[in-house]
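Quick illustration, no need to memorize.
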Amino acid sequence: MSNVENTPTPPADAEARRAVAPVICYPNDSLPGPDLPWMQEVRNQAEKIGETLIPAREARCFEVPAGHFFRITSVEGPQVGDLNLWNLRDLSERFYSGKTRALHGTHLTVGERMWSSFPFLRPMATITTDTLGWYGIDEFGGSVHDVIGTRCDPYTGNLLSGTQYHHCCHSNLTRALADHLNIPLTEAEPAVHDVLNVFMCTGFTRDTGQYFMKASPVRPGDHLEFFSEIDLLGGLSACPGGDCSSEHSSDTAACYPLLVEVFAPPKEALIGWQSPAPNGYDRSHGR
């Protein structure tokens, strides 16, 4: 915020200007919604086919075919995770946190979707279960599973404190993607993108508008589950901030693993369903 000494004198109608009612930028009443009862019916028939354990302060990649489910679970202690999603066949289609935020809000829960980047702009994954859905919005304006934070990274750390810290989520995801695809770090890093902060409790301060974090309410057994709308490659980092109650990236915060499980429904359960098509805009851009 500006220094008080540099704040201009408010105009006579300042309060009237502030009192103008807000307008929702993207009314989502016409947004295609998921068929949650059908997804639950399919999920009830699904069987576990694999799992990936994400070590504390590290990241791993995992694959989820379209029509399958994946679950992220806190298994030992309160821990947040940074989630990236890509189209398994095309890394240029990736999770678009900004547009997801514009369509749904700052935090996601059941029935809301992770949308992909331009020019695709289609659902990548739909949240079907959220054991922290009870949390809502607290008195500080905090909530869980945000799409406002970018991911902890070594560049900001270097900018603010001159450090060379490599277990931040950006670096974790870069290493995990490079290892999974057997590509150089320099090729993997540009594909790493802004995240869904799974289990993280965040908001904006009401006086300065700054992004804040607080101790996550997640406990062992809590989980967030998704229906995979397209063939997905996922990357998940067990954040070095642990439950993010005090530090964002460090070797001192208590950190725990996260578990990713994949569930496959029988093929007959998906008869008649198909992945969403890419966005229908003709890409002429007025020419």
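Residues 52-255 form one domain.
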